[in-house]
Amino acid sequence: MSDTLIEVSNVSKIYQRGKMDVPVLESLNLTVDQGDFLALMGPSGSGKTTLLNLIGGLDVPTSGSIRIGSENIDQLSQGQLATWRSRNVGFVFQFYNLLPVLTASKNVELPLLLTGLSGKERKKRAQAALSVVGLEDRANHRPAELSGGQEQRVAIARAIVSDPELLVCDEPTGDLDRTTADEILELIQLLNKDYGKTVLMVTHDPKAADHASHSLHLDKGRLIEAQPA
Amino acid sequence: MKFSGLIWAAVYRKPIRSSLTLGSLFVAFLLFGLLHSVSVAFTQGVDFAGVDRLIVAPKYSIIDDIPLNYQRRIAGVDGVELIAYRSWFGGTYQNNKQFFSRWPVPPKEFLDIYPEFIIADEQREAFISTRTGAIVGRDVATAFDLKVGDRMPLIPNIWMNKDNGPWVFDLVGIFDGADESVDTNQMFMSYDFFDEYRTQSQGGVGTFVVRITDPDRTAAIAAEIDAMFANSSDETKTTTEKAYNQMFANQLGDIGFIMTGILSAVFFTILLLTGNTMAQAIRERIPELAILKTVGFSNVTVLILVLCESLLIALLGCIPGLLVASMLMPALSGAVPFFGDVQMTPLIYIQGILLALALGVIVGLPPAVRAMKLNIVDALGEHAA
Known about the structure:
- By secondary structure, chain A is of the alpha/beta class.
- Chain A has one domain: 3-Layer(aba) Sandwich (Rossmann fold), CATH 3.40.50.300.
- Helix content of chain A is 31%, strand content 30%.
- In chain A, strands 6-7-8-3-9-10 form a six-stranded mixed sheet, with helices on both faces. Chain A has a four-stranded antiparallel sheet with strand order 2-1-4-5, with helices on one face.
- In chain A, helix 4 (119-132) packs across helix 5 and helix 5 packs parallel to helix 6 (178-193).
- The radius of gyration of chain A is 17 Å and the shape is globular.
- In chain B, 55% of the residues lie in helices and 16% in strands.
- Chain B has 14 helices and 13 strands.
- Chain B has helices at 4-11, 15-47, 70-75, 107-113, 121-129, 138-144, 191-197, 218-228, 241-251, 255-284, 286-294, 299-335, 346-373, 376-384; strands at 53-58, 66-67, 80-86, 92-93, 101-105, 117-118, 133-137, 151-155, 167-177, 186-190, 204-205, 207-212, 236-240.
- In chain B, the strands form three sheets. In chain B, strands 4, 5, 6, 7, 8, 9 and 10 form a seven-stranded mixed sheet that branches. A four-stranded antiparallel sheet of chain B has the order 3-12-1-13, sandwiched between helices.
- In chain B, helix 12 runs antiparallel to helix 13 (346-373).
- Chain B is elongated.
- Classes of the chains: A alpha/beta, B alpha+beta.
- Chains A and B meet through helix 2 of A and helix 1, helix 11, helix 12 and helix 14 of B.
């Protein structure tokens, strides 16, 4: 029996564009078990990134509730949500979003700056995270000195450095060639299987989705299909 | 402190742009240090003037004289304790490498009325008894390596003498100030000798200096003195020494106003320049700031980071600017001797740093607030687009 980590109940999200209301998600319900690797698929504008942002605590629903573990994150203030994100979620984006002025090690350390850890301990943990993604020898390189795949590995190291339960990945291979994309997906799979991370991944790529244990399809803000991978 | 690496990295993100911004701030604070020091040097005599001394001056212009024979009548006014007088000598000494003011005075009365000039008793007596005697302050003695017994030839530029040559005075004493505020960049010589040998305006003095017994009666005594000479050919205007010094300074131009005007123009330009640079720097980093928020940095933390960045830039421009200004002080004193011994006082450093902090806050606050209000989803969406 698996425990439920994510419980999305009757969630709607409506954006305001000028005077117009644009509904993106409509009364969506979803549960994800702890340790799952779930791929969210669907056409552009289907609401998959919006759903990912809501579950990751980057945005708040217009209505409905989202429970992650024991926390109803839709009830949290902006400040509480920031603290919650720093402890519970790791983010991986399509364009890596590393800070170009910092070395790989310093980029990975960023989430740890919000903890009470000493500089030495932060560095040690960043080094450990970089070794998990196979980049311990690139710790002092800046993003401009790394390949796309290496940048994404640094981003993954940053996502796992504070040991969150949940990894949310938004098109993590969208900017990579096939071979590098497969390496990144295998790394994410490893984090899911060997490190027990629950992974939620948005992708357009069916081959990427094959690495997940489940796939869900969204269209026009509704969950239309759920199938075991 | 753990965020310091992040702040430094942000400052040096664009090295050329940062260097130009720091360069402009450096120049602004260099100017601040130089001009403010000159302004302070120019007006410091005003601030330390005695409260129990009045100056009786010509009513209409500092270049007019008033008759010496007013002395007896002024001395008879109730409340007047001591009276002395002085005239502006001008002249040039040696290569004029350091300007110092020169005043013919009645030695005894003048030293009695200015007890803050500290001089050895035998030198005081020599000054009183030597017709060609002169005394100089410690600053002058040090600058020109003078010692008692030296002869000091002064080339006239206002007062020609009957020999149509230089005035030669015998240095009979060197005085110190009772404290650091007393101006020892001065020379005093015997008025009697000066008056006898000048070719014009005999029997005239520049101003009288009057010491009064009761500073609370300043206004009444001043009014009584001026009333005595009203409607004469040499009317007087009597004020406190402080007010007179201020007026004297203002006749040469309101230095404080000029300096403040120049500095205001400089800092207004710097404000716009640095403000624009900071706004641009933050605009470019919106996705990076969004990432900081994504990984858990709160809105307030992001606001503080951007403000610290702005304050750091301001201080990095300010501190070297002030330090270089202080190093240039000796050269400034030499190049513009009229201003005397110009120095960077601790107060000027403090004012400069406070100005830098204010500049940092004013320039940094708008982009900091923008960064604080940044919506993560919108900012990341812009980057993806």
